[in-house]
Amino acid sequence: MASLQLAGTGNPAVARRSLPSFHGLRLSPFPFRLPSSIGACGVALERRGFRGHVVKAATVVAPKYISVKPLGDRVLVKINTSEEVTVGGILLPTTAQSKPQAGEVVAVGDGRTIGDDKVQIGIQTGSQVVYSKYAGTELEFNGSNHVILKEDDIVGILEADDVKDLKPLNDRVLIKVAEAEEKTAGGLLLTEASKEKPSIGTVIAVGPGPLDEEGNRKPSTTITPGSTVLYSKYAGNEFKSADGSLYIALRASDVMAVLS
């Protein structure tokens, strides 16, 4: 993604408290307050909540360009629009609309070379896919938002409308998260805010495995559908299905144990 950074000269006229959430951002020499969603020159910004906030904006492709051809193992995905209405029909304000992590593949690269072999991209144009939350570079092209990312950043293929039917790719695993405990060991009823986020779930589907040095798939032999597993607490991408159940898609290496 294109990054927008405000260069500063240390002008004391600018109050640092006007930018409380942008860790490490150098200040503009102009004495004005910067709204959280609008940057210099009116560029809409997005704050990313990981390891210091990074100010980013989509790269705008000029209208004179009529196509974008990904290179190597990269894929161009047209991002689905944000949900503007809840399942119950409630209109969501812009600030409450979650950023989509899904879209349609509109172009693919020629693949990559592993050893002496050329490995083609295994995703077809027209496929509906789910991708990693912070992966790739966003583009505004032909009036629509796109993201260009590596094939490995695609979590899985959506063959139906519900995330529970996600088909994981590569070394990804789809897990249905166990429900949080409603009560403490002493019998006290827990509120939603105090419920411990579980790191245990049931494996729903397993990807075909990563590619080895010869370009062959190495399927997992220890993680199988139906297994109850313990996984790393902060790994993967979480999704909510139509019935409200929570699912997580993560790499097989983030599964720490099989429970029985």
Automatic annotation (TrEMBL):
Give the protein's recorded name.
20 kDa chaperonin, chloroplastic
Instruction: Tell me if Chaperone is a UniProt keyword of this record.
Output: yes
Q: Which residues cross the membrane?
A: none
MF-aspect GO terms: ATP binding; metal ion binding; protein folding chaperone; protein-folding chaperone binding; transition metal ion binding; unfolded protein binding
Pfam families found in the cross-reference section: Cpn10
Database matches in Gene3D superfamilies? GroES chaperonin
* Entry GO terms, CC: chloroplast; mitochondrion
Query: Which UniProt key words apply to this protein?
Result: Chaperone
User: InterPro entries attached here?
Assistant: Chaperonin_GroES, Chaperonin_GroES_sf, Chaprnonin_Cpn10_CS, Cpn20, GroES-like_sf
Entry similarity comment: Belongs to the GroES chaperonin family.
